[in-house]
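To: structure desk
From: M.T.
Subject: fold request, one chain
Message: Could you run this one when you get a chance? Sequence is below, nothing fancy, just the single chain.
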Amino acid sequence: MPRITYIQQDGEAVSADAFPMMTLMETALMGNVEGIIGTCGGICSCATCHVWIEPEWVDQLPAPEAEEADMIEGLAHRQPNSRLGCQVQMNEALDGLVVRVPPAE
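Reply: Done. Structure tokens follow.
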């Protein structure tokens, strides 16, 4: 089971286990990570699951698809390593992944 560490806005690290095929957003919600809301339920339409992927992990994820890239483009706190948690599906290769929760939009 992959384990993800979320660095919340206050700097506190919260780790959560993800079942295979869960998303970063679903794992964060189950782990009570502050700042990840998932208002749209994971259909890539609200960006309330925005995270920054730690640089050493960015190349291990598939590139965002057009819909996700468009949503990220409109975010005030976007960075080159921004992703929507609802679009990042977990697998064993991502065990140890570290992400940061940016300020709310």
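Reply (cont.): The chain has one domain: 3-100. Let me know if you need anything else for the meeting.
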